[in-house]
Design a protein that fits this description.
It is a single chain. This protein is an alpha+beta fold. The chain has a domain at 80-178: 2-Layer Sandwich (Ribosomal Protein S8, Chain: A, domain 1), CATH 3.30.1370.110. Helices cover 26% and strands 12% of the residues. The chain contains five helices and five strands. The chain has helices at 12-19, 80-87, 104-120, 142-153, 184-187; strands spanning 72-74, 96-98, 125-129, 157-162, 172-177. A five-stranded mixed sheet has the order 1-4-5-3-2, with helices on both faces. The longest helix is centred in the middle third of the chain and has 17 residues, at 104-120.
Length: 191
């Protein structure tokens, strides 16, 4: 039995032209066309970089860490509900790091090591105690500002917020980490 073929439909471009035939384009509105950024070659990972993707101190910079400390941070693509849950204590800290009294470089190194180990252990939430810095010369809390800035530079940090008063208040942050998934290679069966 022969099926009857329907007549061919007009092409999509022709349909589009018919649909917008009487439309006139808008005049230029002073838009700025941004140039595409030039690709940046990745920096080699420092010795001892773990599977978490955290690398040496050369990656975490203090550039842009001036001014006031962030009270909270949420990585792009992560739901605001996640930050709300973190603030409400629905992700209790599974480990804690105290950076009181450390110099900036030592604190940065220790923070990287702590996050790397936490990720390798599969921890979801940790607390970083950096202190308020009210006793410093300027009273600005440089370590408080820098530690929070460094956390924003770590792709494994999904969010952070100030800890509740009982856990350090403005002198500490609760940090939500990415869940480590086993690599695809580790799950393959030998052939």
């Amino acid at each position: 039995m022969k099926e009857e073929q329907e007549p061919p439909e007009p092409k999509d471009a022709e349909l589009f032209r018919q649909a917008v035939g009487g439309v006139t384009p808008l005049s230029p509105s002073g838009r700025v066309t941004l140039a595409k950024p030039e690709p940046v070659s990745p920096k080699p990972a420092a010795a001892g970089a773990g599977a978490s993707g955290l690398s040496g101190t050369d990656v975490w910079t203090d550039h842009g860490a001036g001014g006031e400390a962030l009270t909270e941070f949420l990585r792009n693509g992560v739901s605001r509900m996640t930050l709300r849950k973190l603030r409400r204590g629905q992700f209790p800290a599974q480990n804690s790091l105290d950076l009181h009294g450390l110099a900036s470089d030592a604190a940065r190194s220790l923070l990287q090591q702590f996050l790397r180990e936490s990720l390798l252990q599969g921890l979801r939430s940790v607390r970083i105690i950096h202190g308020k810095g009210l006793h410093g010369r300027t009273g600005e809390g440089i370590l408080r500002i820098r530690a929070r800035h460094w956390l924003t530079q770590c792709p494994e940090v999904l969010a952070f917020c100030e800890a509740p008063p009982a856990q350090g208040g403005g002198g500490a942050v609760l940090v939500l980490l990415k869940v480590a998934h086993p690599s695809a290679e580790g799950q393959r069966k030998p052939s």
